[in-house]
Design goal:
- There is one protein chain.
- The chain is α/β, with parallel strands linked by helices and about 500 residues long.
- The protein has a domain of about 90 residues: GMP Synthetase, Chain A, domain 3, CATH 3.30.300.30.
- Helix content is about 30%, strand content about 25%.
- Strands 1, 19, 20, 21, 23 and 24 form a six-stranded antiparallel β-sheet that branches. The protein has a five-stranded parallel β-sheet with strand order 5-4-6-7-8, sandwiched between helices.
- Helix 11 links the parallel strand 15 and strand 16.
- Helix 2 crosses helix 3 and helix 7 crosses helix 8.
- It is globular and about 65 Å long.
């Protein structure tokens, strides 16, 4: 039983993602479209377009184009959009790297993606060098690197020709339904389709402002905030990291109608006393994504701010949104309706089930990835030959087409909306001489949603502090286990698979 979208289909234009964004920038070059939140520094539509064209020209002159990969390691700031779209306009592929990554994590992504060039900021140059980046360009200036300004060239008058349906424009890294992070091949058509799907359903009006603390390296911030808002003729106030006071200040100052957030921010908005000090009457809706949001917290935010609290659903492999709550509508606990030009199925043991019956959510549509980078087996396990993406999430559909996420079939841990693969943390643990065996699972946490906890079979003389120091040198902070428990043996199946359900219960962290 295939559940069709209730919305009219979108047109697949064949545009590149940058050409789609340029449509939202055309007409008023003096209009401010990006503001650096901490400093108030502004970038106009004309300056953004000029910067993109000049960077694309410089990249082409330097021999970078179709088939080449350029990495970005940077927080949210106006220049992120210049770099992202300059690379795309030159016909090349962007791989976006989490700024909290350690040198080994950055090195893995650079090597796996085949990136020729890394664009970063001065604060991350040492990390980039320690990761072995051979060619480093800095937004600003730093010793031993090239400034971004020096990479600018003669402006390109048009997009370097691309096949929108086949050419990969961005390569973010995701753990998918399980396993180590792998590159997700997203095409121009994937990104453009999802922008147009979001505009048709979730909505964003020209001139509307939003505060963008959701990181642009993550597909949620990248598509929903940076690309959708610019394509809509709207604007984004960028924040390099989340700070509640600055966030509330910017929301009140720019009268933002929508708060694009993840569940940890919902807890702060629901409970922190600082919220009462700000006039948030401009806020019409609180939109949560990236991880499940509990109904009680959602209702608390709505009551306190006086807005509608809604959710959407997606994953990196879907560019990212497959389901969203239409503007002006809501259904408590639901992630919304299926996006335009998108179909979904609810599958149990390979068979479709009908309304009101939970099963694995499968999705097919123009926003679904082309596959994993150099991972044919992982691609085959996630994508069917006829285009269905197996999400690994347990869902059900009601009689009106609203979708509810009930649980996760996959092992991923969602920490503040970011994916943590147990296998990645376990692999890092096992590189320590103090660890004989290890297992990791997620446990609920009010602030983060979930946190990883580790169970270790210790070697003689093992010390928790030394194991933690070993992990801290290899993993980003959000991947580090909240607790490490020493146990005698890791429960495993006859085939050697970890039986996480049989690991000791952690009552609190």
């Amino acid at each position: 039983m295939i559940h069709q979208s209730p919305h009219p289909p979108i047109a697949l234009t064949g545009e590149s993602i940058t050409e789609r964004v340029f449509r939202g920038l055309d007409g008023d070059p003096a209009r401010v479209v990006l503001i650096d939140g901490p400093s108030g520094r502004e970038m106009t539509a004309g300056a953004l377009q000029a910067g993109i064209r000049r960077l694309a020209g410089g990249l082409r002159a330097g021999g970078i184009g179709k088939g080449d990969v350029v990495a970005i390691l940077a927080p949210n700031l106006p220049e992120y959009a210049v770099v992202f779209h300059g690379i795309a306009y030159a016909g090349a592929t962007i791989t976006t790297i989490n700024p909290t990554y350690t040198p080994p994590e950055v090195a893995h992504q650079l090597a796996d993606s085949g990136a020729r060039l890394l664009v970063t900021i001065p604060a991350f140059v040492e990390t980039a060098k320690a990761a072995g980046a051979a060619d480093i360009v800095v937004i600003g200036e730093a010793e031993g690197t090239r400034p971004l300004a020096a990479l600018m060239g003669e402006p390109l008058s048009g997009q370097v020709p691309v096949d929108a349906a086949a050419d990969v424009v961005v390569l973010p890294y995701s753990s998918g339904t399980t396993g180590l992070p792998k590159g997700v091949r997203l095409t121009h058509r994937n990104l453009v389709a999802n922008v147009d799907q979001l505009l048709a359903v979730v909505g964003c009006t020209p001139g509307e402002w939003s505060v963008g603390f959701l990181p642009f390296f993550h597909i949620y911030g990248q598509t929903v905030l940076m690309n959708m808002h610019l394509a809509a003729g709207a604007g984004v106030v960028t924040m390099p990291r989340f700070d509640l006071e600055l966030f509330l200040t910017l929301v009140a100052r720019h009268k933002t109608p929508t708060l694009w957030c993840a569940p940890p921010v919902a807890v702060a908005l629901a409970k922190h006393p600082m919220v009462d000090q700000f006039d948030l009457s401009c806020v019409e809706r609180f939109f949560s994504g990236a991880a499940p949001l509990g109904g009680e917290v959602a209702e608390a935010v709505a009551r306190r701010i006086g807005c509608v609290s809604v959710q959407g659903y997606g994953m990196t492999e879907m560019s990212p949104v497959s389901h969203g709550t239409p503007r002006g509508r809501a259904r408590m606990g639901s992630v919304g309706l299926t996006m335009p030009s998108t179909e979904c199925r609810i599958v149990v043991d390979g068979q479709d089930v009908g309304v009101g019956v939970p099963g694995e959510l499968w999705v097919r549509g123009p926003q679904v990835m082309a596959g994993y980078h150099n991972r044919p087996e992982a691609t085959a396990a996630t994508l069917t030959e006829d285009g269905w993406l197996k999400t690994g999430d347990l869902a059900e559909v009601d009689a009106d087409g609203w979708v509810f996420i009930r649980d996760r079939l996959k092992e991923l841990i969602k920490v503040k909306g970011f994916q943590v693969a147990p296998a990645e943390v376990e692999a890092a643990l096992l590189t320590s001489a103090m660890v004989k065996d290890a297992a990791v699972k997620g446990v609920p946490d009010e602030e983060a949603g979930e946190v990883p906890v580790a169970f270790v079979v210790p070697a003689d003389g093992a010390e928790e502090g030394a194991i933690r120091a070993h992990l801290a040198a290899q993993l980003a902070p959000y991947k580090l286990p909240r607790t490490i428990t020493f146990i005698d043996a890791i429960p495993k199946s006859a085939s050697g698979k970890i039986l996480r359900r049989m690991l000791p219960t952690i009552d609190h962290v």
